[in-house]
Amino acid sequence: MRTINRRAMMTGSGAAAFSAAFGLPIPFGRYLPDGLKPILSAEAVAQALDTSIDGKSGLSVLSDRPLNAETPPQLLDEAVTSAQHMFVRNNGLTPNFSDENIANWRLVIDGEVETPLDLSIDDLRNDFDPVTLQLQIECGGNGRRFMTPAARGNQWSFGAISCAEWTGVRLADVLAKAGLKDTAVYTGHYGADPHLSGDPDKTPISRGVPIQKALEPHTIIAFAMNGQDIPLLNGHPLRLIASGWPGSCSQKWLTRIWVRDQVHDGPKMTGQSYRVPKFPVAPGVEVADEDMKIIESMPVRSVITAPTTASRFAPGVPFTVRGHAWAGDRAVSAMDISIDFGASWQRATLDAPVNRFAWQHWRTNVTLPEAGYFEVWARATDDAGIMQPATQPGWNPRGYLNNLQHRIAMFAV
Ligand SMILES: Nc1nc2c(c(=O)[nH]1)N[C@H]1C(S)=C(S)[C@@H](COP(=O)(O)O)O[C@H]1N2
Ligand SMILES: [Mo]
């Protein structure tokens, strides 16, 4: 297997122009839907893979202040995401803690509780039952890069997703110890990262979840990842994980959970942040804040982690295509692959999740029938029968929830 390391220089659109540019036939070109270009024209094959971020390897950097870096699909191939390949999404500055800061870490639980708590990490370890779970964390803006018209924000493609093995305690158990009042309806989460301005009175992000999601047994306060300390960039020494919902609900460097008697209104809970229109809107329009609602579960989605896009295979020789799929609060019930631009689909083998909210692995064998340019398209279906669309599912002002199908280029030569 070898990668063709060049980019298509396309001026026109559609299969014919592409075929001319590459000097390769497109055997299923007649099925390429009108308006869709071959994916190789839209995707840089040779990505600049960064090696400069401490503890990370091969991520592609979208911005460095704040630091935002995503995982290329082929580095998501691991069954459990490793520390070095876990994406980073910061809204503020990366904190810089001393050993003393870490040793004296406190987590405050206050607001609508009978007994406010002020806990050390040892208190969490000693006073509550430990849980270890594989949990996916996906940024609400994953896929934004493919929104038309473009939406402002980090231009994530497919790599703002991780699924690591987290160890910690159930938020429900901690809230039970504090004793929820009847007035408790929502949580508000706070972390120790500084605001981009450096102003200590400003908070970069403080989101929350309805109390039912907070009490869900998979919502945890984690102090370890993959059996080790959490990587600093991913929330060391303590983070919340509310899997299946936008990653922004999973506060890193967690210091406080404020139990609210109303929907939390911290920075990035209101206005246009992590909110989508209550009804379908025309692409590109402005939507008033009062017509927006808070995103809850993330939609069904999948990624092809092997082979790498633009790999070459011999015609007629089968090879394995594999990846992962997930569906927010739901499970994935079917995974299908197409090599003819969506004209026909073949069912892949799909594993059950190791626990609820873990991503699900899938694989199948694919054979490219003759020489030429092909694409592999991947489509997951959730247990409510909802499928990933071929193109964007519905435009929204900030470009959230774009769960379009992942497509990779393949050469049969
Ligand atoms: N304290 C804090 N927590 C945070 C953020 C942040 O900027 N500060 N970013 C959130 C967002 S938007 C996402 S998508 C996830 C990303 O988690 P990761 O950086 O560990 O991959 O963390 C969330 N938790
Ligand atoms: Mo995010």
Blueprint of the fold:
Blueprint (H helix, E strand, L loop, with lengths): L13 H9 L37 E5 L2 E4 L17 E2 L9 H5 L3 E5 L5 E3 L1 H7 L2 E9 L22 E10 H8 L7 E6 L19 H5 L4 E6 L13 E3 L12 E7 L14 E3 L14 E3 L6 E6 L4 E3 L5 E8 L5 E7 L7 E2 L1 E2 L9 E7 L5 E11 L23 E7 L1
Parallel strand pairs: 4-11, 15-22
Antiparallel strand pairs: 1-2, 2-3, 4-5, 6-7, 7-9, 8-11, 9-10, 12-13, 14-16, 16-20, 17-18, 17-21, 19-20, 21-22
Bound molecules: the ligand Nc1nc2c(c(=O)[nH]1)N[C@H]1C(S)=C(S)[C@@H](COP(=O)(O)O)O[C@H]1N2 and molybdenum atom.
What do these coordinates show?
The structure is a single chain. This protein is mainly beta and 413 residues long. Among the domains are: 6-37, no CATH class; 60-294, Oxidoreductase, molybdopterin-binding domain (Sulfite Oxidase, Chain A, domain 2, Alpha-Beta Complex), CATH 3.90.420. The chain is 8% helix and 29% strand. A 5-stranded mixed beta sheet has the order 15-22-21-17-18, with no helix packed on it. Strands 5-4-11-8 form a 4-stranded mixed beta sheet. It has a 4-stranded antiparallel beta sheet with strand order 6-7-9-10. A hairpin with a 7-residue loop joins strand 17 and strand 18 (346-347). The longest helix is centred in the N-terminal third of the chain and has 9 residues, at 14-22. The ligand Nc1nc2c(c(=O)[nH]1)N[C@H]1C(S)=C(S)[C@@H](COP(=O)(O)O)O[C@H]1N2 is lined by residues 86-92, 137, 139, 162, 191, 193, 204-205, 234-235, 247-248, 250-253. Pfam families: Mo-co_dimer (PF03404), Oxidored_molyb (PF00174). Residues 101-266 form the Oxidoreductase molybdopterin-binding domain. Its cofactor is Mo-molybdopterin.
